[in-house]
Amino acid sequence: MDRDLLFLTGLIFLPLAFVALVSAWADRRFPTAALVLTVIGVGVAGWAYATHPGGYDWRSLPDLAVETVARYWRR
Question: For the chain, how many structural domains are there in total?
Answer without folding.
Answer: 1
